[in-house]
Design goal:
436 residues; globular; 75% helix
Length: 436
């Protein structure tokens, strides 16, 4: 993905002010963690608007290169992108802080909602809030498609790749890794032929010092993360026994390393094991967890925390159900997100090196163009059940989604206000229908 060869002080793609202090960045990461609704697309759009456009902490080209790199990795790309930005600004501790605060507020909210669902059953008020938020989430994703696509699809080959990715996923049901590899191969071939898929280029070095790529550094990080994984897991199993925890750790650690394509790529694998193999949840409870994860801040993959919570709630062993469920939620979240920190802290120095390679930059440009089609497919996946459920079109959902999209694009409404407005609309609709 490429940007203009020259840049001026007024170019919004280049930082024009000093980098933030660690305290300033910490406060903003916490705010993002509290307001990061809308799934990966909405979260990436928020970082684009705040970190690149408004605060100018990172330039546009580096942001897009890092996004492309994160899309190649297994795990939640938005959380990994936040980790990379934090690392870019303030080193290892900046990355750890950004990645943790991106997840922590949503994890706390989801824990409370999981406990409410497990202890008190279905609540009509919560269902009404979900019904109102879902069309807003669709609007957030569509707004992200527009904003990212406008910056990325600057040439016809990029548009063709985005369209091809959408058709491959939506109509041909091709696996996401094949889409990514195919787009990268096309971008690489185009670079070899001297063709450019996108007009974006990496600007000159911005003065930030980054660690030099080093095999020794990677090996040390792998050893550190192996210890960080093994010690807490061994302590839990030694203190409370295997219960559901041993199988939970095995399943979610494997998923963290082998599933690509974001939350909706990992969910079929995890859901089948949780529902069919281990019988920790019913299919309805799995859907409830997904609705909770979509309606709370943080990455959608936090649904795995709901799985861990209910699995331990139903099989607490010697602990109380709440204590076991809290431990299950914490452990499932920990083993799912820990590898993402390794991927970013180990691979971060290579993002710049890859970006400055003509062939690698061509491959990443191809992937970046395909990402627009991938996000559009996500909008289709989320949107059809919301605006066209089994009983036919839902006029209220269509109106709410259209209004939210207009407010986000034409009026510049902040994402969190759109989400709150959607929740209010859901409550009003339920009250008018006598749903309480």
């Amino acid at each position: 993905m490429r940007e203009k060869t020259s840049a001026t002080a007024t170019d919004p793609a280049v930082p024009t002010g000093p980098p933030p202090s660690f305290r300033e960045a910490l406060a903003w990461w916490f705010r993002l963690g509290c307001l990061s609704f809308g799934g990966a697309a909405g979260q990436i759009a928020m970082m684009q608007a705040e970190v690149v456009d408004r605060r100018k902490w990172v330039d546009q080209a580096r942001f897009l290169h890092a996004l492309n790199y994160c899309m190649l990795l297994p795990g939640p790309e938005a959380q990994q992108l936040a980790t990379w930005i934090g690392w870019r600004l303030h080193g290892v501790w900046g990355g750890v802080a950004a990645g943790t605060l991106f997840v922590l507020p949503g994890a706390i909210v989801l824990w409370a909602l999981s406990w409410t669902a497990a202890a008190y059953g279905d609540l009509p008020v919560v269902a009404a809030v979900f019904d109102g938020v879902k069309p807003v989430v669709l609007a957030i994703v569509l707004a992200a498609v527009w904003k990212i696509g406008r910056r990325t699809l600057t040439r016809p080959p990029a548009v063709a790749l985005a369209a091809g990715a959408f058709v491959g996923l939506a109509l041909l049901d091709l696996p996401f890794p094949l889409i990514v590899l195919g787009a990268g191969a096309i971008g690489l071939a185009a670079a070899r032929a001297g063709l450019e898929i996108s007009s974006l280029k990496l600007p000159p070095d911005d003065g930030h010092a980054v660690p030099a790529p080093s095999a020794g550094r990677i090996l040390r990080l792998i050893a550190i993360f192996a210890v960080l994984w093994a010690v807490p897991v061994a302590a839990v199993l030694a203190l409370v026994g295997p219960g559901p925890f041993e199988a939970m750790v095995g399943l979610l650690t494997t998923a963290a390393f082998v599933t690509f394509g974001g939350a909706y790529a990992v969910l079929p694998y995890v859901a089948e094991a949780a529902v069919e193999t281990h019988r920790w949840l019913t299919p309805a409870e799995m859907l409830d967890g997904l609705a909770l994860a979509e309606s709370t801040p943080g990455p959608t993959i936090l649904v795995i925390q709901h799985i861990g919570f209910l699995a331990a709630w139903k099989d607490p062993g010697t602990l109380t159900p709440l204590a076991a469920a809290t431990l299950g939620a914490a452990l499932s979240t920990y083993v799912t997100f820990l590898p993402s920190f390794l991927f970013i802290l180990a691979g971060g120095p290579y993002v710049e090196a890859i970006a400055r390679s003509r062939l690698a930059a061509g491959a990443l440009a191809g992937i970046g163009a395909a990402v627009v089609g991938v996000i559009l497919n996500l909008a289709l996946f989320l949107g059809v059940p919301v605006i066209w459920p089994a009983g036919g079109p839902d006029p209220v959902a269509i109106v709410v989604a259209a209004a939210a999209l207009w407010l986000l694009l034409a009026r510049g409404l902040a994402v969190h206000w759109a989400v709150l407005a959607g929740a209010a609309a859901g409550l009003v609709e339920a009250a008018l229908r006598g749903g309480f």
